[in-house]
Amino acid sequence: MQAQAAAAPPPMHGSALVWLTLALGLGTFMQVLDTSIANVSLPAISGDLAVSPNQGTWVITSFAVSNAIALPLTGWLSRRIGEVRLFVMSTLLFTLASWLCGLAPNLAMLIAFRVLQGAVAGPMIPLSQSLLLRNYPPEKKNLALALWSMTVVVAPILGPILGGWITDNISWPWIFYINLPIGLFSASLTWALLKARESETVQLPIDKVGLALLVIGIGTLQILLDKGNDLDWFESPQIVMLGLVSVVALVYFVAWELTEKHPVVDLRLYTQRNFLVGSMILSIGYLVFFGNVVILPLWLQTQMGYTATWAGLAAAPIGVLPVFLSAFVGKNMHKMDLRLWATFSFAIFAGVSFWNSAFNTGVTFEDIVIPRLIMGIGVATFFIPLMALTLSEVPHTQLASATGLSNFTRIVAGSFGTSLSITLWDRRSDLHHSVLSEHVSDLTPATVDALNQLHALGMAAPADKAMLNRVLEQQAVMQSTNEMFWLSGWFFVALMLLVWFARPPVQGGGKAAVVAAD
């Protein structure tokens, strides 16, 4: 039954708005940071818990699976519990799970607590977004999205750097313990500010069939994405089975949800043109963008001799300019068609991708940092206008559902981007290595000259052949890396065109562009 009036609360102003932004932003930052901070700590965690590195990867997978399942449930949960109560409960439970992760005495317990952590974290990102939009004045909603997007962009970049530093200088449990003060502060401040501004609640029946299909479909899909490359994809019976189960479960899930009176995930949001087009562009753009984010540090560490810390520092400049530009974009976004902002962003992404596709093995640290810094301009104009465009036709009562669903598709796309890019990168590297090796023979002048140069440096057999093979491998991976950037550039060019299938909200992105239709 309806517990509260459906009317949106009046907007907040002044210092209360500043504190609310800080509280919700810290909660989001903590959750997004935790998705990447454990990655560089896996060797230390595996060694300390006496397990293999492959077993240790379940620390990442377990969180990703439960988080992917929980994300699209945000709208349904918030209608039953209330957005404010759900955000505060999720933040407190996430903080508790973080503490338990740090205390875990073995891998089984750590994985169990990571599953809990990922599940309760699901609503945090979409609710931080919807709560900001519900409580900001209409003319400042673009600014709210801008401030929110800064945490989403910066946290994944800081995660590996911070995780590496903590692991090297303190100990791995502290990558979880640092969440305690942040989570407690975020939850308590959010409750103090918003407890009297709770959203409408309705005692909806539990869609048990839809929930079961969602858990099976998304759970198997996420495991498939995480383990596909290690198991050689569909050459593995395990991956084939996961794929079949996921496809069948998700097809039935979509059919069930579209006919269910009280669906656990409101797929009818996709009947809104801008939500459909915006979610699609955000997902594809994030897939390609995140693939690049993963490939660059891998290439630097495996082929260019960079440490994890220096590879992180080389990638980090992409988050510098968004910190300064996001607020400017948010304040001025209404002055120009939102589709133009997004087109400009993809043009920057495409230009930098084509620039990176001309790298060679002699590239310097500065050569890498400069294009990453420029790419930050595209990041600042990517998330904010596209989120505004995506939510421009969504009523305020459906904001939690819409933000949960759009963030879910974006994050799953990021998982696809990671898995597909690494697989394609590896296979193209192997192909180039094979082609280059065909030209290496003791009878070819180039090979003889290369070996003679190595001998002149004091290198004897078989070390000379090993060194020559290492050079071939480095060149092969360089060619594959260039191809990945080149392909990404053309994807971004295509997105420049796709964005124009959306409708211009409020006459070309007017100041109410992100104000949900009340």
> What is the correct CATH architecture of the largest domain?
Up-down Bundle
**CATH domain class name of the largest domain:** Mainly Alpha
Averaged pLDDT: 81
**Percent of residues in helices:** over 70%
From the spread of the alpha carbons, the general shape counts as globular
Number of helices: 23
DSSP summary, beta strand count? 0
Describe the structure.
There is one protein chain. It is built from 23 helices and no strands. It has 518 residues and is mostly helical. The chain has three domains: 1-206, Up-down Bundle (Growth Hormone, Chain: A), CATH 1.20.1250; 207-263; 273-518, Growth Hormone, Chain: A (Up-down Bundle). The longest helix is centred in the last third of the chain and has 39 residues, at 399-437.
